[in-house]
Amino acid sequence: MDLYFYLSIGLEFLLAMFVSGNNLSAAVGTLVGSRIISRAGGILIGAAGFSAGFLLQGRYMNSVALTLLPHSTYLVTILFSIVIVIFLVAQILKSPLSLSMALVGTAVGISLRIGSGINTGYLELLLGIWIISPIAAIVLSYLGNLYFGRFQLNKTWNMASTLKVLLLLTSAFTAYTLGANTIGLLGGFAGFSLASILSVLAGIVVGSTFLSAGVLKRVGEEMYSMRYFNALISLIVSSFMVEGATLFSFPLSNTQTLTSGVFGAGLSYKYKALFVKPFLVVVITWIVSPLIGMFLGFLV
Predict the structure, then answer these.
(1) pLDDT tens, residue by residue, 125-155
(2) Is this structure's pTM higher than 0.85?
(3) How many domains does the chain have?
């Protein structure tokens, strides 16, 4: 095995670590913040969900990786290096970053640089999905909160307990879908060798344990005060959309769908002020990150 293979495996570990730590609060932040479970319990559920999704459905993203970039340990090393730089800059700026969108943009830039054929039809379809998905998440979350919120008027203790159980299950499923889609895309580029799989699993454990503060937690806090019911609807909308995208082998960011779901829930919650600025910052990041990745991929 060449040097670039080992470099790509090391970089894959770092990316798995970063994305797990960055997204753990998105999956289980409500559970931990509301004391439904402890922080240790949240880490366990998140890490287990990420790992299960990656192992059981991660290979659904193999075809995506091969469509975007010819498999080469040298090219994968360049890809991962550029995305890590983008990710670290986003962390410094405290801005949410979609790893899948950065990976796609950078892979396209590298392919253009080396003159590899680009499936423009696939990219056009993927771009359409990226545009439609957040709009759909906002609408579905908004309507879901309006419709099911009517049953919250006479909330009983049993209903509150049911919401806690549903929130626990949905949070675990959200972590699962991120492992299948985003982390699965990471494995798709690396090739799903045994070394690649082990590095991703190790990255998940380390990132979930030591980097789990996350930047997405502020999305719910700054937009409006999240309640069990609002968080549940947002997580359900996001997780099922990402799972559907995985089944059809399309990379779709949990960051994108969950943030949009939170925004839609906020629109329906008429007794709280909704701060649009954090959402606009996230939207700008969605647009900029794949473009920067494409530029750097082509430049390098």
Answers:
(1) 999 999 999 999 999 999 998 887 666 545 5
(2) yes
(3) 1
The candidate with the shortest Cα–Cα distance to 37, out of 175, 167, 219, is: 167
Q: Per residue in 192-246, pLDDT tens?
A: 999 999 999 999 999 998 886 544 444 444 434 456 778 888 899 999 999 999 9
Domain extent for 58 = 3-299
